Amino acid sequence: MLWNKTTGKILGAFLIGFSFFLGLPLIVSAVYSDGNSETFILTFAITFIAGFSFWYPLRKEAQELKIRDGFLIVALFWIVLSLTGSIPFVFSKEIEISTPDAIFESFSGLTTTGATVIRGLDTLPPSLLFYRQMLQWLGGMGIIVLAVAILPILGIGGMQLYKAESPGPIKDTKLTPRIKETAKALWYLYVSLTVVCAIAYYMAGMSALDAVGHSFSTIAIGGFSTHDDSIRFFDSAAIDYIAILFMFLAGINFTLHFLAWRRKTVLTYIADSEFKAYVMTLVTVFALCAAVLIQTNTYSSIADSIRYGLFQSVSIGTTTGFTNAAFHLWPTFLPALLVLSSFVGGCAGSTGGGIKVIRCMLLFKQGGREIKRLIHPNAIIRIRVGDRIIEDRVVEAVWGFFAAYILIFVILLLSLMGTGLDQATAFSSVAACLNNLGPGLGTVHEHYGNLSTSAKYLLCLAMLMGRLEIFTLLVLFSPAFWRA
């Protein structure tokens, strides 16, 4: 039997850890006297008691995790935490929201998707706004990776959880010799970027709450905002360019950030093939957007066309999902181009969603290799990324991921159309949720509140699959996985 006592112990510990984070919105509620304190006290009590009930009876268990255990814990925890995260939305007296909508909002936050069913954000209590942003921040780097740092304290190895949760096709790279130190290094970087981003936003004119909240969702590449109009609410070029910078940084492999900091040189970035492809992709999308916006006189000046084109290219291309313009109304092919750019997404090891740049690179290189093989059938042709030869096993895994991605996308698309959605809305909804992007086209260009309950649950599944990169969830449906 796959489930063991250690699994229950870890889930309990994770829930206890999450319950303590609820103290942050509780403090915000007290500072702003928004009358929402009872909501978070009740949520804390439910979450802590549930976690303690799992953990305490099993606290002395110290069985080493296997890879299968890691997959099960990661999948269960994201599901359980997303369901638990919906409690404040349900219990808050300051917002009228159904249980399916609350679950959708929680899934969207923790998976850093940024799709929302809530309108009237500008009038919500500050503590609830902070809580939404905090969900994305916790989900951004992966609360599992955070917990990996304390697993040795629990007497449990953490590498299995790290491999199961970390994004990208190559998951054995560690920044430091020990997984505990790796997780700490990732979170030091994550927290540092968040603090610097918050300070920059505040100095550019945001309030303290807005600055902290938007820094959470910027570094997490989440896209939630404290205002219905997102970044457009501030109508500030300075804020736009700060967001562009930090969205771009958050879309880069955090390993590169760590190495560049340790070596004290930006040459680390320039030498990385995935980084160069990442930059090239964003620059290409931006150039097309700016050119069309200028040619069609969509905005009154070239400077505005560049500003809005650059912002939306980086926001959608990194799967952040902030908006500073109504891009769904942009001329010709631009709305479709932006949504399609989210399929590439950020770099592996970043907080971005999508297929990931490195996978797209390997797919492109594999296609080129097959063309060369047609010309030279007996040649031995290796795929290289920079100076590194990529093993065929990795390339096969990428093709397998891509095939699974397309199959899941088609199934979800047809299922959503079966709920009554038109093709444009269904396609963009699946793209936005499976790529953890957020904003879509059609009837979901502003929010997802008008969708049916069945459509929302399907999109919750899409968000979860996107966050866990499909296989981590699909493996649970394999009969071989459950064999003793």
Strand content: under 5%
Q: Outline, from the CA principal axes?
A: globular
| Count of DSSP H/I helices | 24
Any idea what the radius of gyration is? 22 Å
Low-pLDDT segments, ≥5 res: 147-162
Q: Give the structural class.
A: mainly alpha
Counting DSSP E segments of at least 2 residues, the number of strands comes to 2
| Helix content, binned percent | 55-70%
User: What is the average per-residue confidence, as pLDDT, rounded to a whole number?
Assistant: 87
The first-to-last residue Cα distance is: 5 Å
| Oligomer status | single chain
Q: Numbering strands along the chain, what is their spatial order in the largest sheet?
A: 1-2
Which sequence of SSEs, written as H and E, runs from N to C?
A: HHHHHHHHHHHHHHHHHHHEEHHHHH
The largest sheet, given as strand count, sense and whether it forms a barrel, is:
2 strands, antiparallel
Structure description:
- Helices cover 64% and strands 1% of the residues.
- A hairpin with a 2-residue loop joins strand 1 (383-385) and strand 2 (388-390).
- The longest helix is centred in the C-terminal third of the chain and has 27 residues, at 392-418.
- It is mostly helical and 484 residues long.
- It has a two-stranded antiparallel ribbon.
- The termini are close together.
